[in-house]
Amino acid sequence: MSWTLLVIAGLFETGWAIGLKYTDGFSRFWPSVATALAMIVSVVLLALAMKELPVGTAYAVWTGIGAIGTALLGIWLFGDSASAARLACLAMIAGGIVGLKIVS
Predict the structure, then answer these.
(1) What's the CA gap between 101 and 75, in Å, rounded?
(2) Chain centroid to CA 98
(3) pLDDT digit string (tens) for 15-73?
(4) Distance between CA 97 and CA 31 in Å, rounded?
(5) How far apart are CA 9 and CA 59, in angstroms?
(6) Distance CA 10, CA 15 (A)
(7) Which of 31, 60, 62, 94 has its CA 20 to 30 A from that of 68?
(8) How far is CA 84 from CA 72, 73, 81, 91, in A?
C-alpha cells in the first residue's frame, strides 16, 4: 500500500508542478487553488508512504516521478524540448526509480 500511496503522491507532485505554470504567479484564483490542493495532497501522501518506506527511497521516488511526469507534460503541453539526450536522461531517472523499488 505504501508504494501505491507514493506513486499517487508523485502524480500529484507532477500536477502541482504543472499547475504552477497555469497560476501565472498565483494571480489566477482557480489554478492557484488547484495547485495548492495538489501540493497538500502530494505531501500528505508522501508522509503516509514514509511510515513504512525508507525516507531516502520514498523521497527519491517521489521527486523522480514528479520530475519525469513534469518533463513529459512540459513536452506535450508547452512544446518543451524532446531531444534524444533529454529523453535518455528521463529514462535514466526512471531506471533509478525501478532500481530503488527493487532494492527496497
Answers:
(1) 26
(2) 15
(3) 999 999 999 999 999 999 999 999 999 999 999 999 999 999 999 999 999 999 999 99
(4) 29
(5) 10
(6) 9
(7) 31
(8) 13, 16, 9, 10
Threshold 0.70, pTM exceeds:
yes
- Which residue shows C-alpha cell 487553488? 33
Q: How far is CA 27 from CA 9, 23, 83, in A?
A: 25, 6, 32
Place of cell 524540448: 81
Output the nine-digit C-alpha cell for 83.
531531444
Q: What angle do CA 86, 56, 74 make, to 5 degrees?
A: 25
**DSSP-assigned states of every residue in 10-26:** HHHHHHHHHHHHHHTTT
Residue 104: per-residue pLDDT: 79
Q: What is the pLDDT of residues 4-13, one digit of tens each?
A: 999 999 999 9
